Amino acid sequence: MTIIRRASDGSITIPAELAGRLLASAVELAAEVDVVGRLILTPLATRPAPESTDLSDAIKQKNLATGIQHIKGVGPKLVEAFQRLGITTLEDALYLLP
């Protein structure tokens, strides 16, 4: 069992071996505390973002692999929200169904 302690500044450090196992297929973790007070870490499913292309080039090529950040009106906060949902490209956004 790995023991993790809280530092005086409130932060925690996850040992490299544990972080490697937790983050084997993801870059981010969702953290929550259950009713008993246990910390639950869940790897978030992420895909590597495709190479950035200029939106005008993407339109010319009808390239749906263009990053979501190139859409007019999509700022950094909205990009983060989309990434939490696994949406990183225009194609992902087209298939976003309620």
Please tell me about this protein's structure.
The protein has four helices and two strands; from the N terminus they run αββααα. With 98 residues, the chain is α+β, with helices and mostly antiparallel strands. The chain has helices at residues 16-22, 55-61, 76-84, 90-94; strands at 29-33, 39-43. A hairpin with a 5-residue loop joins strand 1 (29-33) and strand 2. Strands 1-2 form a two-stranded antiparallel sheet.
Key attributes of the depicted protein:
single chain; 98 residues; alpha+beta; two-stranded antiparallel sheet; 4 helices; 2 strands; 29% helix
* Quaternary structure classification: single chain
Largest sheet: 2 strands, antiparallel
What's the helical proportion of residues? 25-40%
* H and E string: HEEHHH
Q: Determine the N-to-C terminus distance.
A: 41 Å
Order the strands across the largest sheet as they lie in space. 1-2
What is the rounded Rg?
18 Å
In short:
The chain has 98 residues and is an alpha+beta fold.
Note the topology.
Elements: H1 16-22, E1 29-33, E2 39-43, H2 55-61, H3 76-84, H4 90-94
Antiparallel strand pairs: 1-2
